Each structure stands twice: as structure tokens, then as C-alpha cells.
Amino acid sequence: MATATGQEGRAQGHGGALALLGARRFGPLFATQFLSAFNDNALKNALVLMLAYRPEVAAGWPPGIFIPLAGGLFILPFFLLSATAGEVADAYDKARLIRIIKASEIAVMLVAAGGVLYASAGTLLALLFVMGVEATFFGPLKYAILPDLLPLDELLLGNALVEAGTFLAILLGTIAGMLIAGAHGAKLVAALIVLVALAAFGFSRFIPATAPGARPRVGVNFIAATARLIADERREPVRFRSILGISWFWLVGATYLSQFPVYVRVYLDSEEAVVTVFLAVFSVGVGCGSLIGNRVLKGRISAHIVPWGGLGIALGSIALWLLSPAGGVYAQPLLTVGAFFAAPAHWLILAALFGISAAGGVFILPLYALLQTAGDAHRRARAIGANNVVNAAAMVLSAAAVIALVAAGLSVPGLFLLTGILTLGVAAVFWRLRAALVPGETEAG
Questions:
Q1: What three-state secondary structure class fits 270?
Q2: Residues of 313-338 as b/e, b for ≥16 C-beta within 10 angstroms?
Q3: pLDDT tens digits for 153-173?
Q4: What is the DSSP string of 155-167?
Q5: Per the CATH hierarchy, to which homologous superfamily does domain 19-207 belong?
């Protein structure tokens, strides 16, 4: 149901994405989440690269231990606290909670700036856990507040812009992380992350207030709360199937993102900067796919394009396997970005990667909208909290499966092929469910 703010926006007419970005009902929220995603990824990637390329930072600890530890510390709060985060978000004014989280983030980034300047891996590791806690509580808020701020016929576009902005922030944050890790420009980036946190808090103050829902019980036993949350969502089939689909997207995404460095180094004999090219293509592709999905659906919340998105992921993955060269002895010197682009075969590989990610954007967009609109509106944030738990489990499963398959001798292109074959099955399931997934079909009025 649209709020008064959303109804006012409807009366003024729709001017597309730019108009929505400039509207108070959406622009401040978009800016807040974009800046927050930038800071999260800047520090997370900086720490990983510092541990991998600057042995003095790791203080004798092998990167093989420290890097998985860093990833685990960031994702652990999603397992532990997502249920509580959803309960809190449903109980109070979401805009006020966002402002509280963004205010606390300023203090976190001030400490992080010190960790960057002094290259303190221990400080940054501790802060990764704190940032994970903040992200756990912010995630249900930024998605659950959208239906309160936007009329139904703008909800798909709002989700598409949030997805596009998130992946662009991941890309820019990764580049900032490279600057931090290289020690060159560390002072500039340390100042930047503090300024970004201040800006995020400033934008959050303009997010329109929302009415709190019915006060749920906020459990202190997070294990019981998580079990209760998942059990409750299983009783809402549309939301639960949407959660499973979204989690498959993140499993596939985690698989690809984790393999970019190895694939670029071993199979394409290219330098580290080409990894950033791959990340850029993937990020832009997801954003474009989300916007394409919104254009195809024309504001109608429908699951009918989900299987087509899954089919695109599958066919793109199989094409990437067919286009991939065999891994061999490292070429010396490694290909620069310019030399990489000089080879026509590499353009085909990037086209396949773009197709995979764009199809992923088409796949995930309506699933997020269904998660927000299907079922009990008073349980919206808790449903998103359940989604975060299952998403985190899917990414951990991806990591474990990749480790096991690579240890068993499967190549990186082989992983791409397996991902494509499995996604064909997922697409087939959603083809069968496409009508049942949205009882009565939700139309924008």
C-alpha cells in the first residue's frame, strides 16, 4: 500500500528512473544505501588485498587463513542476527532505525580510517564483524521500507535502481579497496570513507518517516528466533519460493565472483586489472538486467520473466565454458588491459559474462518485489531477514562446494558449465511455478 508520500508522487506523474532518483520518496534512501555499500566493499576488499599482497600487514599469518576469516567475520552476523533484525524493523519506524544505524557507522569509519592509515589487520578484522552487524540490520530496512515509500507501479523500478546501485557501489568500493591495499593514496581513501559515512547519515535524515507495524516479539535467543523465522516463512509459499530463487542467484553470483581472479590469471594470462574489468562487466550487467526487467514488466509484479532469466544464466554459463581457453603455463609477461582487449576472443568472453549477469538481474528483480508484496505486510521485514539468512547459507554452500570440486580436479570453466546445467533445472522449476507463484497476479493500479 502506498503512503501519502507515494500517492503524492503518483499525482505528479512518473518521469522514469531519473525522476524517481530525484524524488524525496526514494532519492535519500537510494543515496544512503549506495554510500553504505561503497564503504562496506571498500574496507572488505582492502583488507583481503592487504593480506594477500602485503605480508607485513598479516603479521606472519598466512593469507589462506586470514582471508577466509575476513569473509566469515563479515557474513557471520547474517546467520546470528537476521531474525532479530527483521523483528526490530517490523516493530519501529524504519526511517528512524536507518538514521540510528548510519550515525553509528560514522564512529565505525573513524576507527576504520585509523586501521587503514596504520595498516592494522586486527583492527580491520574486528571492524568487519561490526560492519556485518550493521549490514544485517540495514538490509531488512532498505527493502522493507520501499513498499511504504513507493506506489505499487514504482516498486519494480525502485528495486531495479537499488540493485543497480548496489552493484555499482560494489565496483567502486573494490577500486577504493585496491587504493587502500596498495598503500598509495591510503590517506585520501581513509578520509573518503569517513566523508562517505557522514554523507550517508546526512541523506538518511531526509528519508520520510514510516508508521511502525504491529509490535512483534523481539527475541533475545537468536537461534530460536532464526528457527522460528524460517518456519514462519515456509508457511507463506510465495515468499519462501522467492527466497529460494534469490538465494540461488547469490549462490551463482558468489561462485562467479570468487573465481574471477583465478580465471583471469590462469586461463586468460592477464594482470590483476583485468579482474576489475570482469567485476565491472558483471556489476553493470546485473544493473542493466534489473532495468530491462522493469521495462518488460511495465510496473506489473509478475513471476513470468523469472524462468527466462534463469535460462539466460544457464545458456550464458554454458557459452562461457565453450569460449574459455585451457589453463596452462602462465604467460610472461601477463597481458595488460589493453592487450586483453586487443584479442577478439576476449570480447566474446565478456559478452557471455554480461549476458549471465544481465539475465541474473532479470531473474532476481521480480523475486524481490514478490518478497516485499506477497503475504502479511506486517511481516515484511522479517521475511527479508529470513531471506538474508538463506542467502548467507547459499553463499557459504557455494564456497564449500567450490573448494570441494576444485580439490577433486574440476577446472574453473568446468565450474561454469556445472553452474549452467544446474541453473537449467532451476529455470525449469520456476517455469512450472510461474503461475502459482503469484496468486491472482499483482497489477499496478
A1: strand
A2: bbbbbbbbbebbeebeeeeeebbeee
A3: 888 888 888 888 888 888 888
A4: HHHHHHHHHHHHH
A5: MFS general substrate transporter like domains (1.20.1250.20)
Cα 60 off chain centre by: 32
Q: Helix crossing, 121-144 with 344-373: angle to 10°?
A: 60
**How distant, in Å, are the alpha carbons of 72, 348, 394 from that of 397?**
12, 30, 5
Q: Please name the amino acid found at residue 237.
A: P
Nearest-angstrom CA–CA distance, 108 and 127: 7
Strand partners for 335: 270
Angstrom distance (rounded) from CA 290 to CA 237: 24
**9, 150 contact by CB (below 8 A):** yes
pLDDT band at 352 (very low <50, low <70, confident <90, very high): very high
Residue 354, number of CB atoms within 10 A of its CB: 18
In tens, the pLDDT along 52-79 reads 555 555 555 555 556 666 777 888 888 7
DSSP state of 21: H
d(CA 181, CA 356): 30
Residue 276 has pLDDT above 80, yes or no: yes
DSSP one-letter string for 52-117: HH-HHHHTT--HHHHHHHHHHHHHHHHHHHHHHHHHHHHHS-HHHHHHHHHHHHHHHHHHHHHHHH
**With 50 as the cut, is the pLDDT of residue 2 above it?**
no
Q: Which residues pair with 442 in a beta bridge?
A: 301
CATH number of 235-445: 1.20.1250.20, 3.40.50.720, 3.40.50.300, 3.40.50.2300?
Answer: 1.20.1250.20
Angle in degrees, CA 28, 186, 36, rounded to 5: 20
pLDDT at 374: 80
Residues 77 and 133 sit within 8 Å (Cβ to Cβ): yes
Distance CA 256, CA 246 (A): 16
- Report whether pLDDT(437) > 70: no
Amino acid at 407: A
Q: Which three cell numbers stand for residue 282?
A: 558483471
Q: Which residues of 366-394 are buried (b: 16+ CB within 10 A; e: fewer)?
A: bbbbbbbbbbebebbbbbbbbbbbbbbbb
pLDDT, residue 440, reads: 46
* Range list for CATH 1.20.1250.20 in the chain: 19-207, 235-445
Cell of 378: 506486517
Bridge partner residues of 301 (DSSP): 442
How many residues are listed for the chain in this entry? 445
Tell me if the pTM is above 0.90: no
* CA–CA separation, 126 and 188 (whole Å): 22
